[in-house]
Write a structure and sequence with these properties.
The chain contains 14 helices and 20 strands. With 427 residues, the chain is an alpha/beta fold. Helix 1 crosses helix 2, helix 10 packs across helix 12 and helix 11 crosses helix 12. The radius of gyration is 22 Å and the shape is globular. The two termini are 32 Å apart.
Length: 427
């Protein structure tokens, strides 16, 4: 007799465990294993970033003494390794004569919740917080936005005025697969992260386009709109990392944002793509743990990726802690309206209304949950989960047991422990 299959799934800052009965075959769907910087095969992460920063792509120039520098950084929802990415940048600026007091960090929240000042320590190293001025972007504060015109696709471009007032503009972030932008990284941290609500809504409305998909870049209207916004802003330098599922640096890139994307996307795609022979009857997925499952808003990306290889009528268990709740007040209030009682209601009402970020998350969830029976294992209250039109699972084991009871013995079962970082491809 075979032994039970034991699973350990990332969940918040730890893991949760469960077992599948003996005789149940399980297929792991994972990014391609790569040595991360710091492993003997890959070298030191600080050295990797230093090499990228001091040999930048695209022939960019460094800032000069006397210039004001603004640096866009991601918020709590992105596992950006600032402790490795920032020292070469800041050291280089000091060497060039840029004064510390002339450097401003702006937390690029986009339309995510504002980051409280006491939470800045979860984003930036202590020495950076002690030395430099740090502020948080507010997409709804029209008085602190500058209008730059419109993109060719008609997106009105409003960008953080403090960022635009700088003489030299930097973005720091990660390159990874994105469910409708194709890939994150490059100018996106500023073009969306530091944009006004009107800009973000107009750009994100393009997610309904057939080419606005995971892994599509050149033909993706939403992503190319972002690239045009980046050119309108005028971003001088970017530093991006490609991370392993364990959030360690695999590759660092620096220089011109578009040059970084051209080189980084090929590497990110090579790592993230995972071939799948046929859709699964049951998929057990995790966004990848903290901060990917910090709230449901972020965890939905894991659902979207995992649903790509789950058959219609099958089951999907999303294991996401969500200590930050839903992550969007607009999402909550919109989906809890009395006339919205099902995923079909979400899809039909969303299609008839003007696009708004926040409630778009309800649509993204409904689009997959209407096709695939979805259970959410989380820290959220069961009643709250049901109000969001999802089925709560008491724990991972009970969710698995419930799903298996409805499946034949030979059902295909998949596990995606790093779903947000995985691009599953049916072959």
């Amino acid at each position: 007799m075979s032994n039970p299959v034991k699973l350990e799934i990332p969940y918040g800052k730890g893991k949760v465990s469960a077992e599948l009965p003996e005789g149940r075959a399980v297929e792991m769907v994972l990014p391609r294993a790569q040595p991360a910087a710091g492993d003997p095969a890959a070298g030191d992460p600080a050295a990797a970033v230093m090499a990228a920063v001091y040999k930048p792509l695209g022939g960019v120039l460094p800032p000069r003494a006397g210039q004001k520098v603004a640096i866009a950084i991601n918020d709590l929802t992105r596992p950006v390794p600032h402790e490795h990415l920032l020292p070469p940048v800041l050291g280089g600026m000091r060497h060039a004569g840029v004064r510390d007091e002339d450097v401003l960090f702006i937390i690029a929240t986009g339309m995510h919740p504002q980051v409280r000042r006491e939470a800045y320590r979860a984003i930036l190293p202590e020495d950076v917080l002690e030395t430099y001025r740090v502020v948080c972007h507010d997409a709804t504060d029209e008085a602190r936005l500058r209008h730059l015109g419109e993109t060719a696709r008609g997106t009105p471009v409003f960008i953080n005025s403090d960022y635009m007032a700088a003489d030299y503009r930097i973005v720091i972030g990660n390159i990874e697969a994105h469910q409708f932008q194709g890939f994150s990284g490059g100018v996106k941290s500023a073009a969306i992260g530091l944009a006004g609500a009107e800009t973000i809504n107009q750009n994100h409305a393009m997610m309904s386009d057939a080419m606005a998909k995971l892994g599509i870049y050149e033909e993706n209207p939403a992503r190319q709109d972002v690239e045009e916004i980046g050119r309108m802003i005028g971003i001088d330098f970017a530093v991006n990392a490609i991370l392993s599922p364990e959030k360690r640096i695999i590759k660092a890139l620096a220089g011109d944002p578009e040059a970084i994307m051209q080189q980084g996307i090929a590497e990110a795609r090579r790592i993230a793509q995972a071939p799948v022979a046929a859709p699964f009857d049951l998929m057990i997925a995790s966004p990848g743990g903290h901060p990917k499952d910090i709230n449901l808003y972020q965890s939905q990306k894991g659902l979207a990726h995992a649903a790509l290889v789950t058959r219609s009528g099958g089951s999907l268990i999303l294991c996401a802690a969500c200590p930050g709740g839903s992550g969007s007040a607009d999402y909550e209030s919109w989906v809890m309206q009395p006339h919205i009682r099902s995923h079909d209601d979400v899809v039909s009402h969303f299609a008839r209304e003007e696009f708004r970020v926040g409630r778009h998350k309800a649509f993204q969830i409904a689009r997959d949950a209407a096709r695939v029976h979805t259970m959410l294992v989380s820290e959220l209250d069961d009643g709250f989960v049901r109000e969001l039109l999802l089925e709560p699972g008491a724990d991972l084991q009970s969710a698995i047991d419930c799903a298996l009871a409805a499946l034949p013995r030979g059902a295909r079962i998949g596990v995606m422990p790093a779903a947000n970082a995985t691009m599953p491809v049916l072959i």
